[in-house]
Amino acid sequence: MGRSPCCSSTGLNRGSWTASEDKILSDYIKLHGEGKWREHPVKAGLKRCGKSCRLRWLNYLKPDIKRGNISCDEEDLIIRLHKLLGNRWSLIAGRLPGRTDNEIKNYWNTTLAKKVHENENFQEENPKKMKINKECVNEIRTKAMRCSRTHFSPHPQQMEPPRSNVVENIQDPGNPNTCRLIETADDAFMFYNHENNNNESSFMGVGVNMGGSGNLSGFFNVEFSDPFNLINDQMVKGDDDHTVCSTPTQGFSKEIMEHFTSIGGK
DNA sequence: AAGACCTGCAACCGCGGCTTA
DNA sequence: CTAAGCCGCGGTTGCAGGTCT
């Protein structure tokens, strides 16, 4: 399929952006909003291609962007998310408010990849010791984590609850259902929604094998303070025993839920 | 002091997915 | 159904500033 290159036009500026170009672009976008990147430079009077404008806005000019000083928590989260998602920088950036995919990608390539590599070598040489990141109190978890199973079922009765210890019961005042965070015998943390209809086998859940090194909220750096949004928003509809993820929630992003589904299988 | 080398980061490029005509 | 166009993503490049020799 033939596609004309985005920036084929001659006479367009390239390279670093000047302060005046930045001002023109941000003023224009504040006035007219994002999107339609091809139109922006023409209408704003910038000699830049749309792609360049989009990149400059998303990675630098956008008001809520944090710059520099990636914290230990953020670093730890990037490492763990990278283990789960690989080089899917936009997904990883989605879990780090104010951080851009480009910044995370650069940080990984310049700093973290090396650090993780060194840590893995250390683990191979000292399997019983846990290397502590010198700059961070948080440990770097090198143990492989994978999604061991995923259960999204519109027919909850088809699922059997594991023999397990209930870690936490959560009751939403505005919702008759009860959520339980469960640690199972096989090292997984399960997230279940027991419907309050005296049918204990009626539930839905997500299972992640954490390799014994964490919990779901720690893993995703979120508090499941409103788990019912997760259940109600995500577990909306399915064919057979699969559920379709619908909208992102504060619990899991749509992408991560889809990732669970794709690697967890039925 | 100066050149070589290294590092971090902004920006570019090409590709693929999605939408539109 | 297909071609064309747009957008977003990930890989890569190139430059500027810092460090080393």
From TrEMBL:
* Pfam families tied to this protein: Myb_DNA-binding
**CDD domains tied to this protein:** SANT
Sorted keywords for this record are: Activator, DNA-binding, Nucleus, Repeat, Transcription, Transcription regulation
The record, for InterPro entries, names: Homeodomain-like_sf (IPR009057), Myb_dom (IPR017930), Myb_TF_plants (IPR015495), SANT/Myb (IPR001005)
Q: Which residues form the signal peptide?
A: none
GO CC aspect terms: nucleus
Going by the entry's taxonomy, the superkingdom of the source organism is recorded as: Eukaryota
| Cellular location(s) | Nucleus
Entry keyword annotation includes Transcription:
yes
The chain positions of domain HTH myb-type read 9-61, 62-116
Domain (Myb-like): residue spans on this chain: 9-61, 62-112
Q: Which SMART domains match?
A: SANT (SM00717)
Output the Gene Ontology terms for molecular function: DNA binding
UniProt protein name: Myb-related protein 123
Q: Which organism is it from?
A: Deinandra increscens subsp. villosa
